[in-house]
Model the fold of this input.
Amino acid sequence: MAVQPRSRRETWRLLFLISPSLFWLIIFFLIPLLLVFAISFGQRGIYGGVRWDLTLRNYVRFFDPLYLRIFYRTVIIALMTTILCLIIGYPQAYFIATRRPRWRNAFLLLLMIPFWTNFLIRTYAWLLLLRDQGFINTFWTSGLHGFLLRLAEMIPLPIWDALLRATSTPLPLFGTDGAIIAGLVYDWLPEMILPCYAAIERLDYSLVEAAQDLYANRFKTFTRVILPLTMPGIVAGSVLVFIPSLGAYVVPDLLGGAKSIMIGNVIYSQFMAVRDYPFGSAISFVIMVVMLVGSLIYFRMGSEGSR
Done:
C-alpha cells in the first residue's frame, strides 16, 4: 500500500509542533557549535581573546606529543570506567529485572536515591574518603596500625615489622588515575544500569527456556541468547558512560589533583587560565568529532552483534 504524501497543512502543523525543540537546539546547540568551530581557526590575541587570522595551527598543535599523551590517558580512563560500569552494572540490572514487580520498583528507588544528591557534593565525598587524612587512610594508619601493634606485643613475629612499616604511612589514593576512575564509576554507574535494565526487562524469556530445552548450559544460554538480545542496552549504557567520562572535568580536577589530568582539564585551562580560546576550541571540536565517530562505530557494532 502506497504511503500518501502529507498535505501542506499537515506539514505546517508538524513544523509548529517541533518548533520549540528546533528553536532550542538551534540557539543552544547549533549556534554555539558553529561558534566554537569558527573560533578554532583563529589565533590568540596578545591579551587573550581571538584574533581572526585564519590558520590550522591550533589543530596541528593538538598532535603535539604532550597533548596526545593526555588524550591517550583520557581515553584509557574513559574505557576503564565504561568496562567497570558494565561489569558492576549488568549483574545489578539483571538482578533487578528478574525480581517481582513490587521489588523492582523498590530496588530502582534505592539505586536512584544516592544520585538525588548534587554531583559536586558526591564528588567531594570521595575526596573525604581518599585523601591522606580521609576515612580510609585514617583507618589504615590509626585503626589497623594500632591493631597490628597490639598483636606484635602479644605475639612477636618477624612479619609484624614489615606490616607496621606499611601501615605507618597513608596509602597513595588521592591524585591517582584509580581515584579518578572510582569517582567516575560511582557517578555514571546508573547510566549503565538503567539501559541494561530496560533491555533485560523486555527480554523474551521463552527463548531462554527454548535454549535450555535444547540442552544449552547456563553459560551458553547467556552468551548465545541473553547477551545478544540485551546488546542494545549494553551499547546505549556504554555510550552514556563513555562520552561524559571522556569529557569529564570536575572529577579529575578534584580527585586527580595536579598529577593526573584529563583532556577536559586542558580545555578548561585554555579557556580560563591561558585564555587561548582558539586552541581550546580546536581541542573541544576534535574531542567532539572523536566522540561522534566512536559512537557511530559502536552503535554499528552493537546493531550487527544483536542480529
User: Anything to note?
Assistant: The two ends are 28 Å apart (CA to CA).
